[in-house]
Hints:
This protein is an alpha/beta fold. Helix content is 30%, strand content 17%. A hairpin with a 3-residue loop joins strand 13 (299-307) and strand 14. Mean pLDDT is 90; it is low at 389-399.
Amino acid sequence: MDRLRAVVNAENVTNVVLAAAGCYVAGKLLWRVYYAQYDKVVYVTYEDVKDKKYDFIIIGAGSSGSCAAGMLARDARRPRVLLLEAGPPDNYHPMSAQVCPLLTKHNQRSRIDWQYRTAPQAKGCDALAGRESAWPRGKVMGGSSVLNYMMWVRGSRYDYDDWCYKRGCTGWSWKEIVPYYCAIENCSFDVASGDDRACHGFSGLQAIFRKPVAKHCMTTQLFVKACQEQGHPYNDTYNGVSQDGVSYTQYSVDAKGRRMTSFRAYVASLFDRSGKKADIDVLPYAHVSKVLTEKRNGDVRAVGVELWGTHRVELDAARGGEVICSAGAVGSPQILMLSGIGPAEHLREHGIPCVVDVPGVGQNLRDHVFIPVHASIDVEAFKKKHGAGVATGVAGVDMPVLSGFWRYLRGDGAGSVCSTPTTDGMLFMQSSVAKRSGSKTNDLQIVAMLSSRAKGDLRKDSGLDHLNYDKDKMHDVFEPAGPNAHHSAVLLICNNNTKSQGTVTLTSPNYRAAPAIDPKYLSEAEDREVLLEGYEELRRLLKSSAYTDSGYGLQPLARISEDDVGRVTADHSALTIYHPVGTCKMGALQADPMVVCDAELRVRGCENLRVVDASVMPTPPSGNTQAPCYLIGVKGAAMILDGWKAT
Length: 647
């Protein structure tokens, strides 16, 4: 019997080994098929680059860095370009969460996310675990354009005019930046007005998609009708002449409904089956520990970068090369400070020799904040109004997710899977706070989400996990009252012109240590006032016949009156909308000692070094920051090439 058991066990081990070997071989074959079909990018290793010298070294392959790298590499003079990314290559298979819009949330809190947390906030975050806000940032080829919700919003024309005429950012006026946007965009939708059409691009590298109106779910269509009923104009495109009014969302998605990241649009397109079409090396897993500098004749200049604390890659000084820091509003100030470029006193605290005293590095941290407000839906009233099978806005009842996946795989970009579950309709408007200050820009953005099943016990709501909520606190404060509605909708009230300013500072001279992020949410009273005004506007929208006739109403809560929902939500659940900017702000160097970069993005006091990403924005734009990041990358590359004199 023992001998028989030994034989059986040996056979089991053999079978397990053979099965494992089979899975390994199958995995390798599938991976090769994937790369042959979907990914032509040829990546390099440090051994391939260590003895080379480059004209341009870009730190970070995110929204701005990939655009800058792609545009620099396309120059007819064929500069030698090195693109560094701390994270791995992206996965561009259509069913990957990095590509399929409906699966966007799963990219957060994953290996391609830096998974930052803010310092505990004194205001606005009472219901978050440790009062800390989760800050996902992309750590992958494509950066945060892989993690974000793909909304393509330029901001208001007045944002750019303010940068140019009031903040010393010469060359960044609306009139001057529109041609760059037109060159970036490849819009696959029609634009109604001729003036608006002149503001859009239709042959650029970045695909921009908007669903046809008839293909939008009923939830989104009701939001648009409610806004119009309350006096807000319908705006065919908020990226045109005017941002004002209610619109259907534009996305950085191709006509097949697949996410198109900056890396895919600007860098991967340089490769085909025959190899690369430009002199560009792409190095993944390359964590930059600092920018290498030297002092010559009293002037400081960048000469290369250090990787992993020990390895070097250098510029070709004879050809006038530059280091371009595109690590984002968190990463760029951290890298500058680790390099000895930043506030001298703060550097001394961490034992870092000060190379250039630039007090503005890591200051002026600005971020958009939002509060979520829930509306309940009487499903029977909804069906009675719109008919069973017609109302495609209620997930789990009529939302055709399975058929949506089928349409997605067929390349039909209009299905339910081809946009995120949060953002198909948007309203831009001014609050009384903005009007009182004389601002012309829209500081309020209200976003309509698709519907989902209401959670009576918020402690069991897995949808709250990635936002770092303390579920017990959430339930104690926001427990629904009485019998729960079958479904709910969430509307987001966003403050797009926050006045609160925070900081990004070092916690250690070790490049692996995450920096301290303190946005100081709602530290300026006006920021809270804007959110509360947005809540009152939302109450007006929910009282429109478009909503009430379809069974919508504000979700009753067990312990909060309707009048107090906005105030309590602002105190407990003011969340980042993932738009940090400003920590290396550009402007007039002579006029403002806190300016880090001039209008051409050159770092104060250090030659051959620029910052090209969201951190240079002096103030937040009126809307999502992805499109402005592309603008900064493309315009930044143009300015760099204008001044580059290769020998």
